[in-house]
Amino acid sequence: MTVKVRFFARFRELLGTDILAEPGKGAAISTLVRDIAQEKKEGYDAIFDEHGNFREFVIVMQNGKRVETADAGKTVIADGDEIAVFPPVAGG
Amino acid sequence: MTVKVRFFARFRELLGTDILAEPGKGAAISTLVRDIAQEKKEGYDAIFDEHGNFREFVIVMQNGKRVETADAGKTVIADGDEIAVFPPVAGG
Amino acid sequence: MISIQHEDVDIGKLINDAKSSGTGAVVIFDGVVRDDDIREMELEAYEEVALKELKKIAEDATTLHNLLHVDIIHRIGRLSVGENILIIVVSAGHRPEAYAGSRYIIEEIKKGVPIWKKELTKDGGRWVPGDHAHGSGKPT
Amino acid sequence: MISIQHEDVDIGKLINDAKSSGTGAVVIFDGVVRDDDIREMELEAYEEVALKELKKIAEDATTLHNLLHVDIIHRIGRLSVGENILIIVVSAGHRPEAYAGSRYIIEEIKKGVPIWKKELTKDGGRWVPGDHAHGSGKPT
């Protein structure tokens, strides 16, 4: 299955965006994001803490709806999903 | 001496405005306004109550500064004064 | 610009002119003739005094709310439904000041500036009662 | 009009279009690039989600504050000092609703809409930290 991962703002600068990935069936959001982020240490460190958990301020969305980062380890990805990962917003 | 009396809004409609008057030396504001208003009963009744006192909501200014209507009976007019009498404001 | 005038103004131009390098927020209030079953509205001012009071309100708002720029344009004469009555433009470094400054100005105008409105309806006219029964500010 | 776009807008035209027969007050918020020793600002949005959230905020503001019309235009891309970032136009029958509705919209945008700003200075760039540490709203 194919999913798209979008990083924004600082995370985009560090990791790129609109990344197409092909996770295995039953993969969790956190696993997918961790695998992609691991390719660039600075990007990984921006998003994950030393225990491999999402940093407190990181926001994750699945198809435009927020997923609590604490739940991202058990939230399963479906084919065609769009996963977004970004730092706190600053619009307006 | 010559003074100008300006009525605004409803009082202007009833009594006119920019009225030049020549009160005697030592005349009080309330006396001046009463004399002018008396020429038209409806105008007089709009400004004064049955005891000849300014109605509670009436505002009086002498040269652009407010005079409490309770004090208008003892506030003396000077040559060249501009006296304004108007109902509550409704700008904005 | 603080003004009492018959003519309308170009609000877009006022906004541009209100900006300086420290401006982060501009708040504009535009009071409009509302169609309360009226044909037109007639506005009248004690112009010299009203203008002086508007200037004082602008100064006080600037000090109290740290504004960078203030415009107040109050129109008089006959205005149709939908026309601008009062335009207030304020700029500030940040939004809380801009909102608070704008609101301060409109409330002070309602409270004490000698301006009156008459609604012209098909049955005649009706002077609008003020928001504040005792009108034009405190004695000075 | 609810929009996320690169182009600026004609605020004067938005104000005119915001008026209907029941309109007594229009309040406009214009957020501007402030000169905090920067050259330019670069804005980025998660466009589809941000637009959906702006529409939701406009609907909620309309219901909560009895608004007659709402425009929200949030610009993205590179903007210079003094340029408009965010324009909010609301109209209502009376001023308290117009002010409250306008303020509600800007605060909700700050709280939760996925848009980011980078200040471009002579020494490089700096992402602006949000007002709200935890960012984009509540989980739904």
Question: What is the strand and helix layout of this fold?
Answer:
The complex is a heterotetramer, with two copies of chain A (92 residues) and two copies of chain C (140 residues).
Chain A: E1 3-7, H1 9-15, E2 19-21, H2 29-37, H3 41-47, E3 59-62, E4 65-67, E5 82-86
Parallel strand pairs in A: 1-5
Antiparallel strand pairs in A: 1-2, 3-4, 3-5
Chain C: E1 2-5, H1 11-18, E2 25-32, E3 40-45, H2 47-65, E4 67-75, E5 77-80, E6 84-92, H3 95-112, E7 115-121, E8 124-127
Parallel strand pairs in C: 1-4
Antiparallel strand pairs in C: 2-6, 3-5, 3-7, 4-6, 7-8
Helix pairs in contact in C: 2-3
Q: What's the pLDDT, averaged over the residues of chain C?
A: 93
- State the CATH architecture of chain A: Roll
Examine the secondary-structure arrangement and name the CATH architecture of chain C: Alpha-Beta Complex
Main sheet characteristics of chain A: 5 strands, mixed
* Proportion of residues in extended strands of chain A: 15-25%
Give the CA-based shape of chain A.
globular
Uncertain stretches of 5 or more adjacent residues of chain A: none
User: At the third CATH level, what is the topology name of chain C?
Assistant: Aldehyde Oxidoreductase, domain 3
Number of domains of chain A: 1
Which CATH C-level class of chain C is it? Alpha Beta
Helix share, percent of chain C = 25-40%
What fraction, in percent, of the residue positions of chain A are helical?
A: 25-40%
